[in-house]
Amino acid sequence: MTNNTSITDCKPANTTRVHWIEAAELLDGEEVACPPLDACLWDSHPRVFLKISEKGEAYCPYCSTIYRLHGGS
C-alpha cells in the first residue's frame, strides 16, 4: 500500500478566485503553490510557485487566481 493521495482525496483546483492564506501556509516563507498542494492537478493547470509581493499578494497567470496573505506583507 502506498501513501499517495488518491484522486478522490484531493480538492478541486481553482474553484475560488481569491484565496486568503496564512503566513504558515507559505513555502520557504515567501511562495504559494497554484493550484494549492492539496488540489487535484488533473483538473487544472501545471503547478506553479508564485512569490508573494510586498503587498502580500500573488497572481496566477494561468487561472487568474489571487492569493492574499492575511494581515498583508
Instruction: Please state the CA-atom Rg, rounded to the nearest Å.
Output: 13 Å
- The count of strands amounts to 5
Oligomer: single chain
Number of helices: 0
Main β-sheet, spatial strand arrangement = 1-5-4
* Helix proportion range: under 10%
Shape: globular
Biggest sheet layout = 3 strands, mixed
Low-pLDDT parts are none
Order of helices and strands: EEEEE
Termini Cα gap: 42 Å
Mean pLDDT: 81
How many domains comprise the coordinates?
1
Structural class: mainly beta
% residues in beta strands: 25-35%
Question: What's the topology here?
Answer:
Layout: E1 18-21, E2 31-34, E3 48-51, E4 57-59, E5 66-69
Account of the protein in words:
The structure is a single chain. This protein starts with 17 loop residues before the first strand and ends with a strand. It has strands at 18-21, 31-34, 48-51, 57-59, 66-69. Strand 4 and strand 5 form a beta hairpin. It is globular and about 35 Å long. The strands form two sheets. It has a three-stranded mixed sheet, with no helix packed on it. It is mainly beta and 73 residues long. It has one domain (10-69). The chain has no helices and five strands.
Write a brief caption for the model.
Helix content is 0%, strand content 26%. The protein is mainly β. Strands 1-5-4 form a three-stranded mixed beta sheet, with no helix packed on it. Strands 2-3 form a two-stranded antiparallel ribbon.
